[in-house]
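Researcher: Let's try something more involved. This one mixes different molecule types, so please make sure each is placed in the same coordinate frame as the others.
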Amino acid sequence: MSKKTIRQLPLHFMLLPGLLLVLIYSYVPFFGLSLAFVKFLPGRPFTENPWVGFEHFRYVWEMPNSLRVLGNTFYIAFFKIVVGQIVPIIVALLLNELRKNWLKRGVQTLIYLPHFLSWIILGGILIDILSPSQGIVNQLLGMLGIKPIYFLGDNNWFPFTIIVTDVWKEFGFNTVVYLAALTSINPALYEAALIDGANRWKQTLHITLPGMLPIIVLLATLSLGNVLNAGFDQIFNLYSPSVYQTGDIIDTLVYRTGLEQAQYSVATAIGLFKSVVSFFMVSLSYFLAYRLANYRIF
Amino acid sequence: MKASVSYRLFNGLNITFLSLLSLICILPLVHVLALSFSNNSSAAAGLVKLWPVGFTTDAYRFILSKPAFLDSIVVTLQRVGLGTVVNLLLTLLVAYPLSKESSDFRFRTLYAWIFVFTILFNGGLIPWYMTIKWTGIMDTIWALILPGAVPVFNIILLLNFFRGLPKELDESASIDGGGHWTILWKIYVPLSTPALATITLFTIVWHWNSWFDGLILMKVPEHFPLSTYMQTILVHIDLTSMSGKDFEVLKDVSDRTAKASQIFLGALPIILAYPFLQRYFVKGIVLGSVKG
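Model: All components are placed in one shared frame. Result:
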């Protein structure tokens, strides 16, 4: 062995434990994907399951609700991405206009607290405050003369509630990311603009927004990978059978089919569909982020 | 600078809007806190807004005397303690070799792709579940730790930080006879305390908040971590027959204040850690944006 190879040996040893764990818990499941193509019987040796080809995929395709679930997933994910991008940009621009630093910091502190709380905590809070009979939200709406709204139990309201509450939880996070980007804008640009007679609105339009553009492009492209992530944690903790029609998404369907009804093969087939689509979308998003924003993962 | 009327108007509106926005983020939590300290009849009558009505600590006394709640806290503490140590150790051990250039570490690119590929593609829920079953750690604390033991995003964060350290440190250390282990522990670790603090805090929050793995990998409720335990009691409401009247009959009001107190107790550690989280969070963002 050359001296260089020997010197590199400790690096291999360092990687060993992490590598083993990743191989077991991230790569071994790839073999489990074969479940989607076989007739699975528990207790039979895994390799002896008879091959059925795309039988399970055909079954999923013919299920009456599969297209609806795909539609729900895409609909909710799409609006979460779009609204979740726009709101933080606006809030960051507005925060940037605040002259008083304590106010700026105070607002920041409050708006990104929800980001750190889990959907269990927030789910518990939302179920209480959105309750049609006792919730404070409907109490307030009642004072305005509005009849109680079943935010979490009405198919017309459920996707809207999911999108709004998700934006509510996460917009503070992205706002802070944008504000961090704003601090890197050269102050001399503003001074020059002032001398040229640009008012605050013009400064926002011609200096602040262009300064934010790279990070906006970056976050927008990276979010492409989420087109099928409608948010399992949130929906699982807020939905109920009465809103399956507009609130059931791929991840919750996989959970119920696989772990509640023990139809492992069908659930694996649905999951595989999602993984493959997500793989292409995430790869595309990284590629675009690299081309458009010169972003590299490592 | 003279402020024009329209600018002053904008400023006033802006301050009002942002204040309202902040309130929307914090008031739901305050309301639940107020509920948890109110007595049942006031809560049921809808008298509680942002301040307790009929102050009582009964809800908390009730919750803190429940063995299931206390058991789940013990499981969570074990999980957070053990899980954070394992995650942090593996993050360091993987990030260090991957931060080397390909010329210094021949297989670096291959290794890096093995790790990065796991964020591009995954086997999905069922194969993941089957694999954990196959490794025989179901219903043990390890089921909550080992499957997520290698946090690839944190590794990327730390390796980018490592790459920002001056190369001369490595060179001078190896001239003095220090090997890779010495360089990692004696030079890289002490120099990366801000990055490590960020990652540690986020790992703790992540472990504290995780609930899904507990729900499907633990067979008996006594092994549930706090978040999983709370999931089973907080959000399990059957809304199928939900009409206003049914709901009132179905729902025990004392149940409501008890839930409120659990929500608050579950959120309390995060709220206490929040000032630190906030400080390091911004640093973390800056770290993430420094890329070679």
